Amino acid sequence: MILSRTSQYAIQALIFIATRPSGEPVLNREIASYLGVPSAYLAKIMQNLCKGNLLYSYRGRLGGFCLREGAEKTGLMQILMMTEGPSFTQDCVLGLKVCSDATACPMHAKWLPIKQKIVAILNDQTLEKLARAVQSGKYRLTDLPSTLLAASSRT
Amino acid sequence: MILSRTSQYAIQALIFIATRPSGEPVLNREIASYLGVPSAYLAKIMQNLCKGNLLYSYRGRLGGFCLREGAEKTGLMQILMMTEGPSFTQDCVLGLKVCSDATACPMHAKWLPIKQKIVAILNDQTLEKLARAVQSGKYRLTDLPSTLLAASSRT
DNA sequence: CCAATTTCGGATAAAATCCTCCGAAACAAC
DNA sequence: GTTGTTTCGGAGGATTTTATCCGAAATTGG
């Protein structure tokens, strides 16, 4: 509905890393297989997040990725700026090139508060918080195995 | 940020038709040139909206498209169901196949209220309301001509 | 140094979305 | 009926997004 696959993978991967002991590099292969996403593609995304100064990357035997110091405080909005670009918040709902308070599309007035709410929540949700939510066991980062999935839909 | 081009074109076109005297067919060509969107592509979209029982279409000399009776009461959500499909509201923000109150992604609890708000607003905004907003002159359906655009950015 | 492992970077493929073209069918005016 | 206009329907092209592949560079351990 809102996020590209690229963004979803990026967020999932970062939360996953945040659930792991900080400082210990996590392999791309491990992340991809845990999340069930294509590892070659995820590798590209990870590379990008490195360039965005969110991750450290180490090559070779004890290589992998880990969060930079302080990166657990990163809000989702910041991540989306890298993966979706600034147009994510700037673009008009109806696709007008220019749509501001001064000259707006007919949805503008109703949409603006919603957009602000979205941005606020995405800013508020940090990797740290989300990782904790996962660690608590109350929330999942990956799909249920298909066996369980079939079972739960039967209940 | 949220809507495909197809959806944006569909909404724009429908609002445009709603601003015109009801019952008088509007040419696809006219809609496309007014909105500044590719007319062959818009034609496909219009065709789809016909199949969704939102529009009547007439071929030949006095042909064109016009809203079905009562279609002015259609909310944007209903239109998006045709153009984006039901997954538009159903999909998980983080991309999980299954994400419900029972078993959820770490964003679920925060996201759900937002999603509901979005759906509510999209349901509330009908073609009629949006057409009136445009007719009032307070809101625009198309981009400003580039000459004016340059001028406004200079102020 | 050598072998194994991992990320890096570029090229390329596959799929989805966006967009175009064209002949056919329907319709109005003459 | 003929001509001109418009939508219909299917085929196909272009672009963007998603995904794969592979050789090179970096790193560790023997």
Index terms:
homodimer; 155 residues; mainly alpha; Arc Repressor Mutant, subunit A; two-stranded antiparallel ribbon; 8 helices; 54% helix; elongated; DNA-binding
Characterise this structure.
The structure is a homodimer of 155-residue chains. With 155 residues, chain A is mainly α. The first copy, chain A, has one domain (5-139): Winged helix-like DNA-binding domain superfamily/Winged helix DNA-binding domain (Arc Repressor Mutant, subunit A, Orthogonal Bundle). The first copy, chain A, has helices spanning 5-19, 28-35, 39-51, 76-83, 87-90, 108-124, 127-135, 146-154, and strands spanning 55-58, 64-67. In chain A, strands 1-2 form a two-stranded antiparallel sheet. In chain A, a hairpin with a 5-residue loop joins strand 1 (55-58) and strand 2. The longest helix of chain A is centred in the C-terminal third of the chain and has 17 residues, at 108-124. At the A-B interface, helix 1, helix 5, helix 6 and helix 7 of A face helix 1, helix 5, helix 6 and helix 7 of B. Chain A binds a DNA duplex (30 and 30 nucleotides) through helix 3.
**Low-confidence segments of chain A:** none
Number of domains of chain A: 1
Number of helices of chain A: 8
Main-sheet strand order of chain A equals 1-2
Which class of secondary structure composition applies to the elements of chain A? mainly alpha
Largest sheet, strands/sense/barrel of chain A: 2 strands, antiparallel
Order of helices and strands of chain A: HHHEEHHHHH
- The CATH class designation of chain A is Mainly Alpha
The termini of chain A sit apart by 27 Å
**Rounded mean pLDDT score of chain A:** 94
> What spatial form of chain A do the alpha-carbon principal axes imply?
elongated
The name CATH uses for the topology of chain A is: Arc Repressor Mutant, subunit A
Strand content of chain A: 5-15%
The portion of residues assigned to helices of chain A is 40-55%
The number of distinct β-strands of chain A equals 2
Overall CATH architecture of chain A: Orthogonal Bundle
